[in-house]
Amino acid sequence: MDxxxxxxxxxxxxxxxxxLYPQCLELARSHRVFTYDQRGGGQSKTxxxxxxxxxxxxxxxxxxxxxxxxxPLTLVGYSWGALLAMLYSIEAAARTSGPAAQSPLPSPGKLxxxxxxxxxxxxxxxxxxxxxxxxxxxxIEAMRAELSASGLREHDIxxxxxxAFEISVAGYFADPRRASALTPFRVTxxxxxxxxxxxxxxxxxxxxxxxxxxxxxxxxxxxxxxLVSARAAAELLSGEIVVLDDCGHVPYVEQPQALFNSVxxxxxx
Length: 269
Description:
Layout: E1 5-9, E2 32-35, H1 54-67, E3 74-78, H2 80-94, E4 110-114, H3 121-135, H4 138-150, H5 152-155, H6 157-169, H7 189-199, H8 205-208, E5 214-220, H9 227-236, E6 240-244, H10 251-254, H11 256-268
Helix pairs in contact: 1-2, 4-6
């Protein structure tokens, strides 16, 4: 396919790219989509117990970009993948001068940040509290009670596991019932923990001011991740932000047409 390439970064961390499909195949209508399972998840799981950090993820992404000649570089990141795209862009900008210039990284020409993970620890803490509250909401508690009384665990274990997964992620959605359309996935817990711990008491706001590229941020108004974080990222990056109504953290399931129309317009202009 003779089309521009985008690098699609999945969320997590510690997950895999498969849960972005089938909906995100829409991106392949006009672009060559390069994606991969980040180290520690999916087909990139490892028995090596060395902690995987955010720098590990940047180094892996940089190696893939170089080896597969993924330039001019467009990064499309979802959730944690959007934060990874920002971390990579910060590192690439830092290597344009000074001692780090001896090992420069290709800088993205465009960034698409979909439901970006919080850019500060404080906003991450707020997100975690909001999500926990939602998971205790009467609607989701009723879903749990319905599953418990359904008898699926004894009679159809696959259906039971599917429903249990949907309930486990329901708080991410503006309407918890939409969780049934999300492709199930697993997260490698130790990888997720080691990456977040490696970030420490992070705050990317000052560093983002040094990134100069074309940026689109898309965020659901009902996303448990604070909208103020997404707005701040867009402002600091001098980018455009699209806020989707009736949408939580998974716009490719909840508002796919609005999401992909916005992304396509941005990428082709």
